[in-house]
Amino acid sequence: MIDCGEGAQMQLRRSRLKFSRLNHIFISHLHGDHCFGLIGLISTLALLGRTATLHIYALKELEQLMRPWLNFFCQGIDFAIEFHPFTEKGNEIIYEDRSVTVTTIPLKHRVPCCGFLFSEKKTPDHIVRSMIDFYQVPTHELNRIKNGGDYVTPQGEIIPHNRLTTPSCPPRKYAYCSDTTYIPENVSLLQDVDLLFHETTFGKDNEVRARETFHTTAQQAAALAKSANAKQLIIGHFSARYEDETCLLNEAKEVFPNTLLAKENMCISIKSPLTIKL
User: Fold this and answer.
1) Number of folded domains in the chain?
2) How would you write the pLDDT of the chain (278 residues) with one tens digit per residue?
């Protein structure tokens, strides 16, 4: 989960997502609409009988703020809560497993703030079963071949990797940038992402207001997506002054046509099976 506002539990239920599958929460910054839902969510997880550790990645101040609340409201819970602090400065890997890395993206807001880049790792190539059978490749050789190795027959013939496999899908990248002023310097960090979520609190008619409040216009977010060669842009975090956000969508599309408005419970597949839920 990225950020956890007051409506997080309601959206989880509406999306029919299992609470038990939530193990890692990434908090971009310490404004209420991005973290006020945490204590309630943790209480619910305890009521549901959770035992697995919950990992929370955030600026160090979040743990200082939450520990008294946890000690008061969540005494005796059966799972550990592990905080992983990071700094808003620079670009660092804060999580990594066999399939993905999560890297911070420095943002500029009224309080310290970070975005997140989720980068999928390359998966092993796919075995061509007919070729494996033809060359009678032993089972114990398959993992090595999938990861780039050739096969040497008992007679000494070298069977190249590309004859025995087909390439796996290219790794995918998803970037999340919310609550920030326009930062064109982030283009290098966002280069070639498959999906970019970027805040567009205002339209270009309120560019001065956007600059004063450290937010971004739809036109600026689209310019960033275009410069970064992103494949798709999702805009969100709209000011309440816009009763119809279509004007923001049209503004962004003038610069970057492949733009969508973020909607509650929107589900976007990126070269299946990777799915992003908003």
Assistant:
1) 3
2) 999 999 999 999 999 999 999 999 999 999 999 999 999 999 999 999 999 999 999 999 999 999 999 999 998 899 999 999 999 988 999 999 999 999 999 999 999 999 999 999 999 999 999 999 999 999 999 999 999 999 999 999 999 999 999 999 899 999 999 999 999 999 999 999 999 999 999 999 999 999 999 999 999 999 999 999 999 999 999 999 999 999 999 999 999 999 999 998 898 888 754 455 55
User: The domain containing residue 272 runs over which residues?
Assistant: 90-123+170-278
The DSSP code sequence of the chain is -B---TTHHHHHHHTT--GGG--EEE--BSSHHHHTTHHHHHHHHHHTT--SPEEEEEETHHHHHHHHHHHHHSTT-SS-EEEEEE-SSS--EEEE-SSEEEEEEE---SS-BEEEEEEEPPPPPEE-HHHHHHTT--GGGHHHHHTT--EE-TTS-EE-HHHHEEPPPPP-EEEEE-S----GGGGGTTTT-SEEEEE--B-GGGHHHHHHTT--BHHHHHHHHHHTT-S-EEEE---TT-S-THHHHHHHHHH-SSEEE--TT-EEEETTTEEEE-
| Domain closes at, from 86, 108, 136 | 86
Same domain, 101 and 203: yes
- On whether both 271 and 143 belong to a single domain, the answer is no
User: Do 79 and 101 share a structural domain?
Assistant: no
Question: Where in the sequence numbering do the catalytic residues fall?
Answer: 33
Residues 221 and 137 reside in one and the same domain: no
Last residue of a domain, one of 115, 146, 166: 166
pTM value?
Answer: 0.89
